[in-house]
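Data deposition worksheet. Section B asks for the primary sequence of the deposited chain exactly as it was used as input, without tags or linkers unless they were present during the calculation. Section C holds the resulting structure in token form. Section D is free text for depositor observations; keep each observation to a single sentence. Incomplete worksheets are returned to the depositor.
Section A, Depositor: J.P.
Section B:
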Amino acid sequence: MYKKVVGISILLLSGCSTLSSDDDFSDAIEEVTRKFNYVSIEAKDIVPIENKSVGASSLKNTSQLVAIYPTGGRKAPSSYMAVELSYFKTSYAYDSVFINNEERKIKPYSVSTESCSEHCTSTQYFTFPIDNEEIVSSAKTGLTYVVKTQNDLSKLSFTIPAGYFQAVLNEKTLQLEHAPSVIQQPVAEVKVESKDSKPVEMSKYWFDEATVAEQEQFTEWAFANRKSISTQLKSDSKSVEMLSYWYEKASTEDRAQILTWLLNK
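Section C:
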């Protein structure tokens, strides 16, 4: 379902501090979430270096890495980059990313927005996958990704420095070295530890009860209010009402689990 959603503002990109490419990245980690089957390391937003582009240039790019590492050989969500990209309004939109000449389709996490004063600008919000081996290589050479339109009218190239990724790897080492070992735990203990909290359990239940339109409405609102609840979700739907209720009841860790679950729907 989530592939159809064009609605999240993080979400991911609503952190309190934004790094620049010349920072030393000693404090590059925004949040760490530990679950039964993985550790999620969310780096702070960064403004990447814009390289020579074709057909246009960006007005703003804020990128953020969310690295997810399985524990104990268990299945876990995939790592990804989240991007907020603004540019002068055109008749086209960006729909894919190239890394090392490999194309990856982008996934919108919020509806695109427009604003006009003397000129009109468009802003796209999207994610694209990055595997954990690429994070390792990027810690040595940095990461360059190219955002392009379907018709190749425009290509925007950006580079994120190696130190940003090395900070994530340093945090991964720290977290996994101190992660509790559950491989040898009895089956009964494993089941108890992996049980969802009440807000997560009820959010999943009511999400599955909702219509596709209601699911999209909730997803957009949830990601826009990831850090704190700044807007109310208004709807006459019982499903949407209960979704907003349980999401507001959720802890920061619970919300991260709900958002990760939505990304993998």
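Section D:
The two ends are 6 Å apart (CA to CA).
Residues 1-16, 181-194 have pLDDT under 50 and may be disordered.
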